[in-house]
Amino acid sequence: MLFTRWLRFWFEPAPPTNLAVSRMLFFGGLLLYYGLEDFSAWGAVSPAFWMPLPVFHALHLSPLSPGALAVIQMLWRAALAFSAVGLLTRLSMIVAFVLGFYLLGLPHNFGHVYHFDALLVVTLGILAWSRAGDAWSIDAWLRGQDRPAPSGEYTWPIRMVWVMMALVFLAAGLSKVRYGGVAWVTSANLSIVLERAAYHVSDADPLSRAGLWLAAHPWLSRAVAALTLVIELGFVAALVSPFARAVLVPAAVGMLIGIRVLMGPTFGGFLLATVFWVPWDAAGARAAAWWRPRSRWHAGHPAQSESAGRSEPA
Amino acid sequence: MNGIPDVSVVISSCDRAESLARAIDSLRRQQLPAGLDCEVIIVDNNSRDGTSALLQGLVGREHLGLRAIFEPRQGVSHGRNAGVRASRAPIVAFTDDDNEVDPQWIATIKRMLDLHPDVAAVGGKILPEWPSAVPRWIDRQHWSPLAILDYGDRPFYSSSSDPRVLLTANLAVRREVLDRLGGFSPDFPRCQDHELLIRLWRAGGRVLYAPELVVRTRIARERLTRRYHRAWHTRHGFYSASMQLQEIIDRRGNLVTAPPDAIRLYGTPGFVYRELAGEMRNWAIASLAGRAALKLHHAHRVRYLSAYIRNNASRHGGAGRRWGWEMREFLAAHARRWTRMFSVSGPRALSVHLLLAILVGGSAYDIMIGDEHWPFSPYAMFSTVEREPVLEALRVMGVTREAVPREIPLLDSRVIRPFDQCRLTTAFERTYNNPVRRPLTQELLRDCLARYEALRASGGFDAPPLQAIRLYEMRWMLDREARNVALPDQKRLLAEVRSATAAAGF
Question: Does any CB of chain A come closer than 8 Å to the CB of residue B354?
Answer without folding.
Answer: no
